[in-house]
Amino acid sequence: MKTKFDSIKFFIIIAITLFSMMAFTSMYKENRNTIKVSILEPVEISKVAIVDSPTIIPISIKDHNLFLHDLGHQESGNRYGVVNRFGYMGKYQFGKSTLRTIRVKASRREFLRDSTLQELAMHKLLLYNRKKLKKLIQEYSGKTVHGVFVTESGLLAAAHLGGAGSVRKWFRSGKVRRDGNGVRITTYMIKFGGYSLKL
Questions:
Q1: Domain range spanning residue 137?
Q2: How far apart are CA 79 and CA 132, in angstroms?
Q3: DSSP state at residue 77
């Protein structure tokens, strides 16, 4: 009797085990078909949007040094050793009479070979012309005269081209002097206007 009961018990255990295995296998197949594994794909650098930083554009400040550079470029291409067809010398195209006026003593050879002396001569000439034009600069700077907006740097550049006397005459009569190359003093007033000079 006991042996028969044990046999029945054994078959029940086998049946339960088989049923459990079948259920597990079915769930595994179903889950295997429905579960999706997300794999991160590597991103190519070419697909990444790279934003450049804002471009910084340098702004030119119209200061004393830039005035000298620009005026020298206009006169001679900033060449200290050049002499033009009229005999004007150096970076700022000085004539002998102008050098005598500002009391710069040097031979032509010495002057052309000495950049420091040329810069000193230019500084002395600017001071000289500013003194000659002081009243006009004080009275008319920031105003329009004969259709030209007046600034200190513009008047001193014009005086460099044609002399302080020609600038005073322009204020009185509107008559425009030209240099040997046909350049008007008003062209210099406009082109070299608005610089901040340190004199």
A1: 64-191
A2: 28
A3: S
